[in-house]
Amino acid sequence: MRTGYKFAEPPYSLHDCPVRFLAAGNKLTLETEYGMKLPEPPYVTDSGRVELHGLDWDFCWAYILSEAWSNGRFEGEKLQLADFFARCPDVRLEVIDEHYGYNKVRYCGFADLDGEMRELAVEIYCDGPIVYIAGK
Question: Per-residue DSSP letters for 16-77?
């Protein structure tokens, strides 16, 4: 089932869902490993993906946060999302939190980067629809 979303309550949640990313042109697809969360029974779909259309790659970012503190300052790395995908093409993000705003989506969670579990935030600017696809 295809469900569109734009500036309302998202029809599904990706909380605790491991996702992988597939970029093609100005579309980014998040493939879930086992489905998306529903607010009522059966609570989890059997499979699912989210398509974000109309990406402006100049305003899409990846924030890799470090557990290390340096002189009391929090440290990390900010990369253009396209550069991050080139560096980590098979990244798998365990989504812990998701934020939706005007033309912007942010997924936060943890990812195994170079053999080390790191906190990762992916910020996506898109002016097209966000489409949730549940089922095969």
Answer: T-EEEEEEETTEEEEEESS--B-SSTT-B-SSEEEEEESB-GGG-EEEEEEEEEETTEEEEE
